[in-house]
Amino acid sequence: DDGKKPNVIFVLGAPGSGKGTQCEMIRKDLNFVHLSAGDLLRVERETPGSVNGAAILEHMKNGTIVPVEITCTLLENAMLKSGEKNFLVDGFPRNQDNLQGWIKQMGDKTNLLFVLFLEAPEELCTKRILSRAANASVVRPDDNVESMRKRFQTYINDTMPIIEYYHSKGLVRKVDSVRPPDVVHQEIVQLLKKTEGF
Ligand code: UP5
Ligand code: MG
């Protein structure tokens, strides 16, 4: 261990903006571990005997945010287990509770490089999610019109203020996520090339 703190990039954006898609592309050609908070919560939800499973499913269907103690611990454990140093934290922090909880539990243990903000309009995001649902063998319990409306509501009311908070600190890198995945990816690669410290 070189004693250096692990590097973190928060990846934020509306449901369907392409967070998971872009994180996978970065993971594949750069030295980053992809940690999707939503995926970690979905695994926890399916784990037999998990005390949080039912609550997680309820939050997901309602588009509301799971208490930070649960999410942050899943993230920290996944970071430790990987033994790696560079992390894409996908879909977190989504509200004030997440932000305060992360700062308290992880703030001193990590080095935040920047917040990657994938921007795409709601209509396009909705279309993408509905087409994913139409083509999936297993449909996410929140990939339906009713849950989606609630997810967007939460995004506007609770997550945008977090993006604005980091923007005021000069830490947001905004990328237009309307374009094809590989075009978006190339812009992110350029952003990473300009980033020092990892
Ligand atoms: N697609 C992607 N990029 C494209 C492009 N450039 N052009 C054309 N198509 C593109 O993409 C969505 C779909 O669009 C895919 O079919 C893809 O091929 C296509 P994806 O990369 O999956 O987008 P993403 O932004 O990851 O969308 P996702 O649906 O995962 O977003 P959410 O933010 O809603 O989902 P998440 O899993 O992060 O959270 C789900 C729920 O978990 C939350 O609502 C909340 O209840 C809970 N949660 C918490 O409580 N706390 C957390 O910290 C995190 C989640
Ligand atoms: Mg995702």
From TrEMBL:
Quote the catalytic activity from the record: UMP + ATP = UDP + ADP; CMP + ATP = CDP + ADP; dCMP + ATP = dCDP + ADP
Question: Which residue ranges are recorded for the region named NMPbind?
Answer: 36-66
Top enzyme class, one word, equals transferase
Q: What compartments host this protein?
A: Cytoplasm; Nucleus
User: A GO term (biological process) for this protein?
Assistant: pyrimidine nucleotide biosynthetic process
Q: Which GO terms describe its cellular component?
A: cytoplasm; nucleus
Stated EC number for the protein is: 2.7.4.14
Gene3D superfamilies given in the database record? P-loop containing nucleotide triphosphate hydrolases
Cofactor: bound how, per the entry note?
Binds 1 Mg(2+) ion per monomer.
Q: Which residues are involved in binding CMP?
A: 98
For this UniProt record, the keywords arranged alphabetically read as follows: ATP-binding, Cytoplasm, Kinase, Nucleotide-binding, Nucleus, Pyrimidine biosynthesis, Transferase
Q: Tell me the cofactors it needs.
A: Mg(2+)
Q: Where is it mostly found?
A: cytoplasm
GO molecular function terms here? ATP binding; CMP kinase activity; dCMP kinase activity; UMP kinase activity
Give the comment on domains. Answer: Consists of three domains, a large central CORE domain and two small peripheral domains, NMPbind and LID, which undergo movements during catalysis. The LID domain closes over the site of phosphoryl transfer upon ATP binding. Assembling and dissambling the active center during each catalytic cycle provides an effective means to prevent ATP hydrolysis.
Give the protein's function. Answer: Catalyzes the phosphorylation of pyrimidine nucleoside monophosphates at the expense of ATP. Plays an important role in de novo pyrimidine nucleotide biosynthesis. Has preference for UMP and CMP as phosphate acceptors.
Name the protein family. Answer: Belongs to the adenylate kinase family. UMP-CMP kinase subfamily.
**Oligomeric form and interacting partners:** Monomer.
The entry's protein name is UMP-CMP kinase
